[in-house]
Write a structure and sequence with these properties.
The complex is a heterotrimer of chains A (310), B (286) and C (250).
Chain A (H helix, E strand, L loop, with lengths): L1 H15 L8 E7 L4 H16 L7 E7 L4 H13 L4 E5 L1 H10 L5 E7 L13 E5 L4 H11 L5 E7 L3 H16 L3 E7 L5 H8 L5 E4 L3 H4 L2 H11 L3 E3 L11 E4 L2 H16 L8 E3 L4 E4 L1 H6 L6 H5 L4
Parallel strand pairs in A: 1-2, 1-3, 3-4, 4-5, 5-11, 6-7, 6-8, 8-9, 9-10
Antiparallel strand pairs in A: 10-12
Helix pairs in contact in A: 2-10, 3-4, 7-9
Chain B lengths: L2 H27 L7 H17 L4 H24 L5 H20 L3 E3 L12 H20 L2 H11 L1 H6 L4 H27 L1 E3 L6 H15 L5 H24 L10 H22 L5
Antiparallel strand pairs in B: 1-2
Helix pairs in contact in B: 1-5, 1-8, 1-9, 1-10, 2-3, 2-4, 2-8, 3-4, 3-8, 5-10, 9-10, 9-11
Chain C lengths: L1 E10 L7 E11 L4 E6 L5 H9 L6 E6 L2 E2 L5 H4 L3 E4 L3 H4 L6 H9 L13 H12 L18 H13 L5 E5 L7 H18 L2 E5 L3 H6 L3 E6 L2 E7 L1 H4 L3 H9 L1
Parallel strand pairs in C: 3-8, 3-9, 6-7, 7-8
Antiparallel strand pairs in C: 1-2, 1-4, 4-5, 9-10
Classes of the chains: A alpha/beta (310), B mainly alpha (286), C alpha/beta (250).
Chain lengths: 310, 286, 250
């Protein structure tokens, strides 16, 4: 009986306490998990908003992290939606999906770090904008062919539970086929399996491709040291990984993607129209690690070097 | 907290009450710590989403999901009863295997069904889930009052004497595990249909939430009858989600959503400690 | 009718801890007989009872009940033929169940359990009737939890549960040992009454020499896994507790 009364009191208090009436805009950010790339896109977004003078006086920016847990993301989405925000930013696919379900008609969903918005049912929806991080795989393959002599086999490590990886690897395989290059896949369940996976590929392939995959990226130092020791270069679509020892990467800079979305949001706030609701990342960065190239005994063609951003 | 948040907490709390009820059947009724939960929750979502995405009738898809959950529970039971594998371990084995099975079923880690038709149709989600939960509780109450159901409960209380009364202890365990995981798979299926997608990682942590709900429910009202016990599981689940909604609101005092795990642990620990104090003050009848 | 033929029970056969607990037991009990079983610790009394109930499978030999070979029958399958009252009143009943729920479990012993209501008007009156026979007022407390009953009350309930369906054989495993003397005596009288009323075949293990002689019509004494004395009729009538104790030293 006591317990029943207690919960009644709790409920009444809950109903009684109301959210502070918001006269300013509210922008909520639902980040699915903490991770180098996702954090970078969040920071880029915030910087762009600041640069466009969307300051705390003008808009409340509320950030929540679901810690990789989907039911947390659901509750965060509902919480955010209840604040009747103008924009509900989602960083990563699961957050985008829970936000999509929870958002009201007047809120605009703005997503980042989603590779395949079509499969996630994010395209062809009302009031949805976003910047996809679909990587320039073809360009990367062309660059790899120009740098690595006699490239016949490529290996790829990925977490079979990562929705972004599946699509990319499928497309990669198709592209490689047109160049008569074979793709060898090794799947892992967590970053613990990395060493094993690398060992399976070393000796069997000429180069290893790393997708933008949490489990893989979190073990990047391990991956790089094995690659250097074994003399098998690594290519990727995330330029930040080149600083860690990856031979070459060309792709979206997550920070810049975040800025791109921030600018899109600022445009909408200022009443401008967007050319496209869902845009691919506009900035593309090519980065090459000279030291790694040297240790693999590879020469970088001059015209490629000229395209590298310093 | 405003009305929308409260309704949101109630909605997800109701879905997870089915999880709490399933957990109650194994942990409390037959005294079996079943960890299959994380796997069977996702299994329910995986099966129904895959079928709905392929164009099947959502009601049929939901029924198949329940059946799949029953099979998962039966496997855990079989490992324990037939092969003597420790209950805790058997559940872990099933849960681990289900990760791969679920991936195979979905064919990909994430399936979006937000534009497909679901069992909810045009109805209010909360009303539908409330109805489902009430029906589940009524059916289970009737079941546990039957001869067969009493036998299952007897197994949880006293397995040695149960067999002396002709109860096949092993078979009863398997049936209970089957029913429990069927209900949990139903929860997963409803979750996916209400959220519009199924994801391979959605089951992680389900057992903790289920246990927390059961414990909170028991602390409120010490259940004498089965239907009260099941009702308190549902109440516990909803209260848990309301507590989380409170925590989410408290970002003004520096609380992050990432602190939710800690908050859950604290909530459960405090509840169990409070129960111990209550017991101390009760007069024990000899 | 119970028959044990060439029965051996060996624990940990082939290892260092090998223990030949029952040695070549040949033992017959005719219908309606009430046998008391005595013997020192480790004599094999409980093992004998466990073989009859099915909790222990014999290493060698056979168990017959009514000329049916039940040697490999599981405990559950045998439950329709054999009832048992355990020594510890706390474990012999379902503590968290009410009295009527306990009775309901007992009622379906040996039969298939279906989805019909476990407790209904008809079964309730059956329970009331059975419980009123023992006259301790339990019939008015059907919904009380068994955990609220005293040890003696629980043993009395166990007895009623064990004999509710009149299953032929009743095994009593020191069932009054954990009760205080006054209650123990009451339970024994109750046991005697029930055995006589339902004409059961009963086997009772006891450490009390007076109990062993006062009740039943046959007494067997076990020692080191063998039945060393089997007394009934004339031979038994004249014995006193002191005599039995003397036998222990021989």
């Amino acid at each position: 009986m006591k317990g029943f009364l207690f919960s009644c009191v709790m409920l009444t208090l809950g109903l009684a306490s109301s959210a502070i009436g918001a006269k300013k805009s509210v922008i909520t950010i639902n980040q699915f998990v903490s991770h180098v790339s996702l954090d970078a896109s969040r920071d880029g977004l915030r910087q762009a908003l600041l640069e466009r003078k969307i300051t705390p006086e003008k808009a409340d920016i509320i950030l929540s992290n679901a810690q990789g847990n989907i039911s947390n993301s659901v509750q965060i989405s509902k919480h955010h939606a209840s604040l009747k925000p103008q924009f509900m930013v989602s960083i990563a696919t699961p957050s985008a999906q829970t936000n999509l379900k929870a958002k009201g008609e007047d809120s605009t969903l703005a997503f980042l770090a989603v590779t395949d918005p079509k499969s996630a049912n994010l395209s062809d929806q009302k009031n949805v904008i976003g910047v996809t991080d679909y990587p320039p795989i073809e360009k990367l393959v062309d660059i790899a062919i120009s740098i690595i002599p006699n490239l016949q086999k490529m290996g790829v490590i990925y977490n079979s539970g990562e929705v972004n990886s599946i699509k990319i690897i499928g497309d990669l395989e198709a592209i490689l086929k047109t160049h008569n290059i074979e793709l060898k896949r090794v799947s892992i369940n967590s970053s613990n399996d990395i060493k094993n996976a690398m060992n399976q590929l070393i000796g069997a392939v000429d180069v290893i491709y790393l997708p933008q995959d949490n489990s893989v990226v979190s073990a990047i130092d391990n991956v790089v040291s094995i690659s250097l020791k074994a003399g098998v270069p690594i290519i990727a679509n995330d330029p930040t990984l080149v600083d860690r020892g990856v031979l070459v990467a060309i792709g979206a800079n997550y920070f810049d993607s975040g800025k791109q979305l921030g600018n899109m949001i600022a445009d909408l706030i200022e009443g401008k129209f967007l050319a496209q609701n869902i845009q691919n990342s506009a900035t593309e960065e090519l980065k090459i690690n000279q030291k790694s190239a040297k240790s693999f005994g590879l020469t970088i063609p001059k015209d490629l070097m000229n395209g590298v951003k310093k | 907290m405003n009305q929308l948040q409260l309704l949101g907490a109630v909605e997800i709390g109701l879905i997870y009450s089915l999880v709490a009820i399933g957990v109650y059947i194994t942990f409390k009724v037959i005294d079996f710590p079943d960890l299959t939960v994380d796997g069977s929750f996702t299994l329910g979502a995986a099966v129904s989403s895959t079928m709905i995405f392929a164009g099947h009738d959502p009601y049929f898809a939901t029924l198949v999901a329940i059946a799949a959950g029953c099979v998962a529970g039966a496997v855990t039971g079989y490992l324990n009863v037939r092969w003597g594998i420790l209950g805790l371990l058997a559940g872990i084995l099933s849960m681990t295997a289900l990760y791969s099975v679920n991936l195979r079923i979905m064919g990909r880690p994430n399936i979006a069904i937000i534009d497909s038709s679901t069992v909810f149709g045009d109805w209010n989600i909360i009303i539908v889930i409330l109805a489902v939960t009430i029906i589940a509780i009524l059916l289970l109450t009737r079941f546990f009052a039957s001869e067969f159901g009493l036998a299952i409960r007897a197994v949880g209380i006293n397995p040695k004497v149960s067999s002396a009364y002709g109860i096949k202890v092993g078979a009863m365990k398997i049936v209970a595990l089957s029913i429990s995981n069927g209900i949990i798979a139903l929860a997963g299926s409803l979750f996916a249909q209400s959220q519009g997608f199924a994801d391979i990682s959605m089951g992680t942590g389900t057992i903790i939430v289920g246990l927390a709900s059961v414990i909170i429910g028991e602390a409120l009202v010490h259940p004498e009858r089965i239907w009260v016990a099941l009702l308190t599981c549902a109440a516990g689940s909803i209260l848990y989600r309301i507590a989380i909604a409170f925590a989410l609101n408290a970002h003004d005092i520096g609380l992050e959503a990432s602190d939710l795990n800690l908050i859950t642990a604290l909530l459960v620990a405090l509840t169990m400690i409070a129960t111990k104090f209550k017991k101390k003050n009760e007069v024990r009848t000899i | 009718m119970i028959e044990l033929k060439n029965l051996h029970v060996i624990f940990n056969k082939g290892t260092k801890l090998e223990n030949h607990v029952l040695k070549d037991i040949d033992f017959k009990v005719i219908d309606g007989q009430f046998v008391t079983i005595i013997g020192g610790n480790g004599a094999g009394k409980s093992t004998l009872m466990n073989v009859l109930s099915g909790n222990i499978k014999p290493t060698e030999g056979n168990v017959f009940i009514d000329n049916m070979d039940v040697t490999n029958m599981s405990v559950e399958s045998r439950s329709g033929l054999v009832s048992r009252v355990f020594q510890d009143p706390m474990i012999g009943t379902f503590a968290d169940f009410s009295i009527e729920e306990n009775m309901s479990i007992a009622l379906k012993r040996g039969t298939k359990r279906g989805l019909a209501m476990g407790i209904n008007k008809a079964s309730r009156s059956q329970f009331k009737e059975a419980l009123s026979e023992i006259g301790i007022g339990l019939e008015g407390r059907l919904t009380d939890k068994v955990s609220s009953l005293s040890g003696g009350q629980r043993q009395a309930l166990s007895l009623v549960m064990a004999t509710l369906l009149g299953s032929k054989i009743l095994l009593l495993d020191e069932h009054t040992a954990a009760l205080d003397p006054k209650i123990a005596k009451k339970i024994m009288q109750l046991t005697d009454k029930i055995v006589k009323t339902h004409n059961l075949t009963a086997l009772m293990i006891t450490h009390s020499m007076s109990q062993a002689l006062e009740y039943g019509d046959r007494t067997i004494m076990m020692y080191h896994g063998k039945i060393v004395r089997d007394m009934h009729g004339q031979e038994r009538t004249g014995l006193s507790s002191a005599d039995l104790v003397k036998y222990f030293d021989l």
